[in-house]
Design a protein that fits this description.
With about 100 residues, the protein is an all-alpha fold. About 70% of the residues lie in helices and about 0% in strands. It has one domain (about 30-100). It is elongated, with a radius of gyration of 20 Å.
């Protein structure tokens, strides 16, 4: 196994997409930034569409609200215990990590 020179490593890094590079310390943000991004990504319009559909089909408002609360709780817990540890350990986006693990297919 041959070792790469620093110039070869620099050229490989220059060819990589910025999404594939680990996040630097200067790119880290606090909990408030995370909460805003998480809310923006995960409070989706589909929840409102499904909720209205369930009401039309006979579910009560409490059924919908409890379902949304449980669904969001499960989403937060799965993010906290599955996605966040991988992201903080590898400093890669979820999509880049999945691409490395599962391939481009």
């Amino acid at each position: 196994m041959s070792r790469k020179t620093p110039d070869e490593v620099d050229r490989e890094i220059a060819r990589m997409d910025s999404e594939q590079l680990p996040a630097g310390k200067h790119e880290l943000h606090g909990a408030g930034h995370f909460a805003g991004l998480y809310a923006a990504e995960n409070v989706a319009g589909t929840e409102f569409v499904f909720g209205a559909t369930f009401v039309i089909l006979g579910a009560g408002i409490w059924d919908v609200l409890i379902g949304l609360a449980v669904g969001n709780l499960l989403a937060v817990l799965s993010y906290r215990f599955l996605t966040a540890p991988i992201a903080t350990r590898t400093r890669l986006s979820v999509y880049t990590f999945l691409d490395r693990v599962a391939g481009g297919g």
